[in-house]
Design a protein that fits this description.
Layout (H helix, E strand, L loop, with lengths): L6 E9 L7 H8 L5 E7 L2 H4 L8 E6 L2 H9 L3 E3 L2 E9 L31 H4 L5 E5 L7 H8 L5 E8 L6 E9 L3 H4 L8 E2 L2 E2 L1 E4 L10
GO molecular function, one term: RNA binding
Keywords: RNA-binding
Protein name: RRM domain-containing protein
Length: about 210
Amino acid sequence: MLREEDVNPKGIFVDGLPETTRDCDLFAYFSQFGLMTSVFVIKDCLKKYQDRDSCRCGIVIFRDADAVNKVFSAQPHQLNAKKITVEPAKKRNADDGKFGFSVSKTENDDCQSKDENTISDASAQSSNHPDIYVGYLTPEVTESQLEAYFSAFGRVTKAQVVYDRDTGQSRGFGFVTFADNTAFKEGVLEVCHFLNGSRLTVKPSRRNAHYVDR
C-alpha cells in the first residue's frame, strides 16, 4: 500500500494487461477519461513485481487529476475482453526520475525528424498563424485524418503531410496550422498523441515557435 505522500495524484498503475497490449492500446482505452501526458506498457512486470498477475502492466499519467477520479469511479475495467486492475501510481523517484523502476523509452520518444529543416514551403513560412510539426506519421495517414485529429485542440486551417517528390510516398511527418493559439492553451504540446497506432512527435514548428509563449 502506497503512502499518501508517495501517490501521484495524476497517475494510475494498470495491471493484468493482455499480452498483446501496446502503448497505443492503453492510450485508446484511457483517452475516454482525459488527456494524457505519459502512457507506456511495461513488458516484464513479473521480473519487477513478483506479486503481479501478468507479464504486462502499464503507467498512465493524466494532465488533470480529475481524470484519475473518473477512472476509479468507472471500475471495473476491461481491455480486449480481459479484466484489468487499476491502482494509484507512485510518484517519480526524486533521485532517478523514474516511476520506481527502469523504463526504456519507445524509439520515437523525444525525437524530431531532421527533415523539417529541408522543407521549402514559402506560403507556410510566411504564415502569421501558429503551426506545429508532427513526426512519426504512418505511411497511410492522410491530410484529412491529420486535420480531424488535431481539430480536437483548436480550429485547423491547414494540415499538410510531406511527400517525397520522386516516389510520392509520405516522408512520415507534416505540419498542422491552427487559426489561433487556442490549441497551445488546450495543451496540444503537453499531451501524448497516437494516430493509426503510432506515437506522434508533436512540437512547435520553428516557423512559429513564438506563439507558444503568448
